[in-house]
């Protein structure tokens, strides 16, 4: 029997998750979002706006043993992690969502609520925090470490022993060379090549990447 799943975030990423949640053992029963102008991307799935609406829904479904996924990507890792914690406080545990085409090494350690999408790869002895997104075709090589709320965008490539701090985003097609450390709350721009350590709260672009500004 499929487990009931709620998704917080009713835009494109919800469609991505919907594509394989049944194979992962779930059925989407409700969508939530903070944007009052959003339109449900999943016909037939009810959409609720804001935390008050969630609390009303939860009150009406107290006996439902539901699971949750937060479908908010981009640079919003802290928001994703906070919402996952909020839902857990209401006894809705994070879902385990790994696309059937993804590769996870046997000794990789994956945090609660982390989503591993199509063709992504997580290598040997890697550690991935809670509420991360390892997006389509992204790769984290051996002994890598991601903090909480990290987003590896499609096609991002992290070589061996790379460490990324909480809530950082590595954008589409970026490459991080071996043993590099990227701090907390950073943004690595699309197509960037990271050849040296990146301090906390930095936005970096280019090949080789340079700090453009602070967040």
Write the layout of secondary structure elements.
Elements: E1 3-8, H1 12-18, E2 26-33, E3 47-49, H2 50-60, E4 67-70, H3 77-89, E5 93-94, E6 97-98, E7 103-104, E8 109-110, E9 115-116, E10 121-122, E11 127-128, E12 133-134, E13 139-140, E14 145-146, E15 151-152, E16 157-158, E17 163-164, E18 169-170, E19 175-176, E20 181-182, E21 187-188, E22 193-194, E23 202-206, E24 209-214
Parallel strand pairs: 1-2, 1-4, 2-3, 4-5, 6-9, 7-10, 8-11, 9-12, 10-13, 11-14, 12-15, 13-16, 14-17, 15-18, 16-19, 17-20, 18-21, 19-22, 21-23
Antiparallel strand pairs: 23-24
The 3D shape can be described as globular
Helix/strand structural class = alpha/beta
Largest sheet: 8 strands, mixed
Question: What's the domain count?
Answer: 2
Number of strands: 24
Rounded average pLDDT: 97
Please name the CATH topology of the largest domain.
UDP N-Acetylglucosamine Acyltransferase, domain 1
Classify the helix fraction into a percent range.
10-25%
Q: Strands of the largest sheet, in order across it?
A: 6-9-12-15-18-21-23-24
Provide an overview of this structure:
The mean pLDDT is 97. The N and C termini lie far apart (45 Å). The protein has two domains: 93 residues, 3-Layer(aba) Sandwich (Rossmann fold), CATH 3.40.50.20; 117 residues, Hexapeptide repeat proteins (UDP N-Acetylglucosamine Acyltransferase, domain 1, 3 Solenoid), CATH 2.160.10. Helix content is 14%, strand content 32%. The protein contains three helices and 24 strands. The protein is globular and about 50 Å long. The strands form four sheets. It has an eight-stranded mixed beta sheet with strand order 6-9-12-15-18-21-23-24, with no helix packed on it. The protein has a six-stranded parallel beta sheet with strand order 7-10-13-16-19-22, with no helix packed on it. A five-stranded parallel beta sheet has the order 3-2-1-4-5. It has 215 residues and is α/β, with parallel strands linked by helices.
């Amino acid at each position: 029997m499929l487990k009931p799943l709620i998704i917080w975030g009713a835009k494109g990423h919800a469609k991505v998750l919907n594509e394989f949640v049944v194979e992962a053992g779930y059925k989407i029963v409700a969508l939530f979002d903070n944007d009052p102008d959003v339109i449900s991307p999943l016909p037939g799935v009810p959409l609720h706006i804001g935390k008050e609406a969630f609390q009303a829904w939860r009150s009406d479904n107290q006996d439902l043993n539901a699971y949750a996924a937060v479908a908010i990507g981009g640079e919003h890792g802290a928001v994703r992690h906070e919402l996952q914690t909020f839902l857990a406080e209401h006894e809705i545990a994070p879902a385990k969502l790994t696309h059937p085409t993804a590769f996870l090494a046997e000794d990789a350690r994956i945090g609660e609520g982390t989503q591993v999408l199509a063709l992504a790869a997580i290598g040997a002895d890697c550690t991935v925090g809670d509420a991360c997104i390892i997006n389509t075709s992204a790769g984290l090589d051996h002994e890598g470490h991601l903090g909480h709320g990290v987003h590896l965008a499609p096609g991002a490539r992290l070589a061996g022993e790379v460490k990324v701090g909480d809530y950082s985003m590595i954008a589409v097609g970026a490459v991080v060379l071996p043993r590099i450390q990227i701090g907390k709350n950073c943004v690595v721009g699309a197509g960037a090549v990271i050849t040296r350590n990146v301090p906390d709260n930095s936005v970096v672009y280019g090949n080789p990447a340079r700090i453009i500004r602070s967040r």
